[in-house]
Amino acid sequence: MPATTIGRTELTDVRYEHGGDDHVFVELAEEMSFDANFRAMAITQQIRERDLDGVNEICPANASYLIQFDPETLRPDALIEELRDLEESVELTEYRWDTRVVEIPVLYEDPWTEEALMDFRERHQDPDSTDLEYSARINGYESVAAFIEAHAGQPHMVTMMGFVPGLPFAFQMVPRDRQIEVPKYVAPRTHTPSRAIGYGGAFTAIYPVPGAGGYQLFGRTPVEVLDVKQELPGFEDSLVFLNPGDIIKFRQIDREEYDAIRERVEAGTYEYTYEQTEFVPGEFFERPYEYNDELVEALE
Q1: 267: exposed, middle or buried (C-beta count within 10 Å: 0-12, 13-18, 19+)?
Q2: CATH class of 98-298
Q3: Is-above-0.85 flag for pTM?
Q4: 185-231, pLDDT tens digit by residue?
Q5: Residue 248 pairs with which residues in a beta bridge?
Q6: 3-state secondary structure 223-249
Q7: Residue partners of 120: CB distance under 8 A and separation at least 6
Q8: Which ranges constitute the DSSP H helices of 51-120?
Q9: CA atoms within 13 A on the CB side of 45
């Protein structure tokens, strides 16, 4: 019987490492889990709230985080002592944070990513299938349609940003036995269209710009996640739209709606659909499906 709660993961071997004179890297776990990622976000949020003199940049990741600081202002051993104190004081079941639920429209099986993936079949595990057909089969789905429904049916949390500016890595908010898992290509492609929806391991990624890539390609969104000129609505405060802790709800659209949204994006009139909310890890751990429904209802 599929799990109806999120299994907790005990984190026992937190590792603190120096990165040169001005970085501290903290590995909370070697393996991705909701506990590891939520703890990384909770601790880095607390560091921001403490506003330590000398801390220049805070970067949460899937199961770790990185702090860049000025060693002439903040001693490395004093920073690590502060981080150890936070590690002991943060209790996830009592923690909560403000975030956004963001709708990302997706044209699955779109012609642009289909062309790209077919150009590189010799680099794929299954040259005779599309990426969606392969991913559906190895995850036990009877059809591509059922697989797309599973991918779009439950929200995904942005667990880190990286690789290139604006690229979110998102982990689907379901129990481990319902997680979609796929390998990356045997050898990476040299081309991936911008705004492609890719999947590797247990993470969805949105490619902000065209380039090389090895994730399985599922579709393409008409909306931007990176605007270096900050001219589009939604990018007034940052050149990237998504941030760690944001919750993505992918919505399947058809070609007609894709073209209509894309036209509005290019005209600078598209407004993202999102709502501010409060995320409560304890409620998510206890009743993930009901809690996910409550989160995405805010978009309706």
Answers
A1: exposed
A2: mainly beta
A3: yes
A4: 999 999 999 999 999 999 999 999 999 999 999 999 999 999 999 99
A5: 102, 156
A6: CCCECCCCCCCCCCCCCECCCCCCEEE
A7: 185, 189, 190, 191
A8: 76-89, 111-119
A9: 16
Domain ranges of the chain: 15-95, 98-298
Structural tokens at position 124: 């794929």
Query: What's the Rg (C-alpha) of the chain?
Result: 20
What are the Cα distances from residue 230, in Å, to 236, 244, 268, 297?
A: 6, 19, 11, 29
CB-based burial, 149-175: b 16+ in 10 Å, e otherwise: ebbbebbbbbbbbeeeebbbbbbbbbb
pLDDT tens string 29-79 = 999 999 999 999 999 999 999 999 999 999 999 999 999 999 999 999 999
What is the secondary structure of 104-129 as a DSSP string?
EEEEET-HHHHHHHHHTGGGSS-TTS
| CATH class for the domain made up of 15-95 | alpha beta
* β-bridge pairing 247-252 and 97-108: parallel
Mapped onto helix, strand or coil, the DSSP state of residue 263 is: helix
Q: Please, what is the Cα angle at 36 between 106 and 48, to 5 degrees? A: 90
List the alpha helices (DSSP H) in the chain: 34-50, 76-89, 111-119, 131-138, 144-153, 255-267, 281-286, 288-297
* Contact (CB, 8 A) for 131 and 217: yes
**Rounded Cα gap, residues 84 and 77, in angstroms:** 10
Query: Rounded to an integer, what distance in angstroms lies between the CA atom of residue 234 and that of residue 264?
Result: 13
Give 104's strand partners.
250
Check if the beta carbon of residue 199 is closer than 8 Å to that of residue 216.
yes
